[in-house]
Amino acid sequence: xxxxxxxxxxxxxxxxxxxxxxxxxxxxxxxxxxxxxxxxxxxxxxxxxxxxxxxxxxxxxxxxxxxxxxxxxxxxxxxxxxxxxxxxxxxxxxxxxxxxxxxxxxxxxxxxxxxxxxxxxxxxxxxxxxxxxxxxxxxxxxxxxxxxxxxxxxxxxxxxxxxxxxxxxxxxxxxxxxxxxxxxxxxxxxxxxxxxxxxxxxxxxxxxxxxxxxxxxxxxxxxxxxxxxxxxxxxxxxxxxxxxxxxxxxxxxxxxxxxxxxxxxxxxxxxxxxxxxxxxxxxxxxxxxxxxxxxxxxxxxxxxxxxxxxxxxxxxxxxxxxxxxxxxxxxxxxxxxxxxxxxxxxxxxxxxxxxxxxxxxxxxxxxxxxxxxxxxxxxxxxxxxxxxxxxxxxxxxxxxxxxxxxxxxxxxxxxxxxxxxxxxxxxxxxxxxxxxxxxxxxxxxxxxxxxxxxxxxxxxxxxxxxxxxxxxxxxxxxxxxxxxxxxxxxxxxxxxxxxxxxxxxxxxxxxxxxxxxxxxxxxxxxxxxxxxxxxxxxxxxxxxxxxxxxxxxxxxxxxxxxxxxxxxxxxxxxxxxxxxxxxxxxxxxxxxxxxxxxxxxxxxxxxxxxxxxxxxxx
Amino acid sequence: xxxxxxxxxxxxxxxxxxxxxxxxxxxxxxxxxxxxxxxxxxxxxxxxxxxxxxxxxxxxxxxxxxxxxxxxxxxxxxxxxxxxxxxxxxxxxxxxxxxxxxxxxxxxxxxxxxxxxxxxxxxxxxxxxxxxxxxxxxxxxxxxxxxxxxxxxxxxxxxxxxxxxxxxxxxxxxxxxxxxxxxxxxxxxxxxxxxxxxxxxxxxxxxxxxxxxxxxxxxxxxxxxxxxxxxxxxxxxxxxxxxxxxxxxxxxxxxxxxxxxxxxxxxxxxxxxxxxxxxxxxxxxxxxxxxxxxxxxxxxxxxxxxxxxxxxxxxxxxxxxxxxxxxxxxxxxxxxxxxxxxxxxxxxxxxxxxxxxxxxxxxxxxxxxxxxxxxxxxxxxxxxxxxxxxxxxxxxxxxxxxxxxxxxxxxxxxxxxxxxxxxxxxxxxxxxxxxxxxxxxxxxxxxxxxxxxxxxxxxxxxxxxxxxxxxxxxxxxxxxxxxxxxxxxxxxxxxxxxxxxxxxxxxxxxxxxxxxxxxxxxxxxxxxxxxxxxxxxxxxxxxxxxxxxxxxxxxxxxxxxxxxxxxxxxxxxxxxxxxxxxxxxxxxxxxxxxxxxxxxxxxx
Lengths: 618, 604
Hints:
The complex is a heterodimer of chains A (618) and B (604).
Chain A: H1 10-14, H2 32-50, H3 54-90, H4 95-143, H5 146-152, H6 154-196, H7 198-205, H8 207-245, H9 247-252, H10 256-308, H11 314-356, E1 378-388, E2 391-401, E3 406-410, H12 417-424, E4 432-437, E5 440-441, H13 447-453, E6 454-458, H14 468-473, H15 481-491, H16 494-499, H17 517-531, E7 535-539, H18 547-560, E8 565-569, H19 573-576, E9 581-586, E10 589-594, H20 596-602, H21 605-616
Parallel strand pairs in A: 3-8, 3-9, 6-7, 7-8
Antiparallel strand pairs in A: 1-2, 1-4, 4-5, 9-10
Helix pairs in contact in A: 2-11, 3-4, 3-6, 3-11, 4-6, 6-7, 6-8, 6-11, 8-10, 8-11, 10-11, 15-17, 20-21
Chain B: H1 14-22, H2 27-31, H3 40-74, H4 79-126, H5 129-134, H6 137-179, H7 181-189, H8 191-228, H9 230-236, H10 239-291, H11 297-338, E1 362-369, E2 379-386, E3 391-395, H12 402-408, E4 417-422, E5 425-426, H13 432-438, E6 439-442, H14 453-457, H15 466-475, H16 501-514, E7 519-523, H17 531-546, E8 549-553, H18 557-560, E9 565-570, E10 573-578, H19 580-586, H20 588-594
Helix pairs in contact in B: 3-4, 3-6, 3-11, 4-6, 6-7, 6-8, 6-11, 8-10, 8-11, 10-11, 15-16, 19-20
């Protein structure tokens, strides 16, 4: 929309967050120093991306030089033809012209072969670099901690992996050649001009400072402008993905109009950012053209005068003017691809910023091996945790869970139950103290060992697009179909899966939309069961189940949890009844600890909770 | 993963796909012109500037010819400055016209891009939930970003250059023929092989670029899924497997791009070869012609110089064609979305329902619902009547279709059979806006947006007063938001403070309550609450429910207790309706679904 959606106060609807800067990566400050640092990093990144292709690049440069030499030959051959060939022909000597014709044929052939080879080679390099970059960034996003992702948000992640990659891909698609070729021909034409006629060449060279000045101006301003386009498109993507992801709520609450206003506002910001960048290039390119045209006019007049005075040949002037055109034309082209270059540079900087982000839950350099199978002894030693220093979530907490024990953690909302789960699964590292598995600090365990041993089921139940079987198999890739079905049977999910026409091969659709929330939860359970971990953590994992399913799951859990350590977080105390031991948490402190039956008899906080729960059953 | 399920076709309806295919490849790109209409004036000025600039740039070699054939040949130093000034004037004019063209063009192209994106978003917001569950969001995203950028690129660089190149080509050829017609015709003839290979290139490139765009969408989809499923991936330590899925798609995209580079390489090289060969022929033949006195030496210089002017338009044609093809396929992809008609829309005779007049009698008459593509219906024949002010609980086993039935009330989907009436009006005869104004829904999975708490709460009623908001927060026991760092102004949702499942659910409930609707649909609204909070919420909710007709999907006796009556959904039908205690006593299936005692009754 060209008109700006004035009704939207862009800041009010977004609400306030801790720091806006949190949305950037740590490397990505807005001050001059961090911009410079970022540029340095994106250069380092580019170098490391290009390094594996050194040989192909040498080959490409050789082809480019050949192509350039062949292209350069044409005006020179025109000069020879006019200055030598025509007079020779008047003397009935055709040899010069024949040679010129031959040279033309050779140079044209060479240009064809070299050009084709070069475009292919540069395409290969560009795409290989792009693939490498996609892989690196994707892997890095996977390595970064949940805390980072919560801060950075999925929309930004998507934007980095799609729109930013597109910018680089656009350059790889055809820009590189023109950039290199233009640079090359500018240098070689300058040399040629100097060789042809020193005096005329010096006149031409007067235009150089102007060219350099306008280029520097453009580069300085466009770096800022393109960075802004990258940031504004990310906001567009975030709003797009988020609002369409929750389309049900959007429609049910007639949110469309306001969403549209917000979208139009961020969309318009992107348009304005783009317009600023476009205007820079729209100034740069005509100015280059102006410099070129003025130079041609001057050379024409001065050169004509020189020819008149017999100080230079007509052929030289003709060739000179032809070269001048070739000199400024690619600059035009260049200015267009300069566009892609700047856009790609800005994108690369953003990506370098991501790659530079150190995972705050890092894999150890020298991991301590975990015995297999793991016993499943879990211990928290003096563990404290907070997201922000002013609001402690866990005061120093000590907890020993021997292998094989099923522990239920109960308590009011905000008591720190989920935090315990996040620490044991190492979604977060404790601020102080340590979490141990079989006596080994989680920070010393290899990611693979940890994930094999500890698995968590939450109420989130994320399903990936694919079949039901594939989603269960996610727990243990490579598991046989029998194992998948056995897991589903064990958890009581087999019946509903069989009711689908394609049974286990039913597509679950986006986010598992084909299944109900309860069914998704059952699939998530089957997945966890198949994973067969030493420690299983259930965080509100049965909240969406109906009572029969919940009972079936509980029956299954009795067997499943028998030989493994389990931490069960539940509001429904029916789930708690299968536990060996109950911990009642209050503000991160254990206020009660013991077998459920004993706690009921004791008449403390748990007994109260238990009574409320019995009442709720009617 | 042993098998990778293939990405669904962009449009699952094969009929529609075929009809899109049958059209001319340019058809969908041509449809874009509607978005350029506001810029008609821009386009006119732009075209004029382009043509004038081209005229100036072509005139420059003619001045060169005049210099060579005039002052230089005649030794007339006095004529030189005048011609020099002419060249200077033309040069400056060309640059100024360029400047003008580019500035105007930036305005038009970016304005068009933004307004297409805005319409696309508006259209997507209108499309039903069913559409969104079918389409991968990465495919939608890549249409809104990459494809639109491609079209913009074509319009801002490709189209003007196409015009310039074509015009330059024609004018130069005409001038060449005027200078020396046999050689001019020769140059003209050299266009034929170019034209033929361009045609072949176009057809191949079209297919490859469509494939590449679809694969780009696949990669985006995979990225999007990873970004959203990050916790699950981490919890299971499955980074490697998920990475492999991504990698397969990324490699596929890479291979297509390399294949595209191969096509481009051959074509572009040819575009260099033909003019180079022609120039050689022109030079030799021209020399002969000069020798024979058919042409002046200045004429030959001008001829060669003019011919070199062709090299650039021809070379440019290479990438112009390339981005034109990409723009065509991008336009196809866009129109696949634009051509999908929203299924849930206002009927022509729809009437608005005044909130004051709504009593809230909700009737389900013989409702059937089958998900698109599914063989078996989820709902077979549901008959149910809810009296004004009554609260009806809906009970059934997991997957029995409770949520499906609930979503029919605000018309997120339309039933495939039967009708739902509100105070006797078929829902489809009411305007969507007035229906949804009177019906509020709390979803099983609460969706919070990255906005302030207040904005999230007043989603369905932006004009809600502070008192209304406070009341809703009290009912849903969501007063914890006041303890957030900036109270109701705190940003929550994905980009803000993260809330627990129970907290999110309470906010979603408050969001429905604040609307003060005549009809309230609550889909398992209390599942994530602890027993204590649940009891408090229920107590407050009872008062709200007293003033509204409500359908409450329930899994637990405690939630059922909110209701006046309970309906049991079983096998796609309502098999029992009554009071909780009565049903518990008389209906065994009901007892199995809802009784706290663990009875051995099959869940099916």
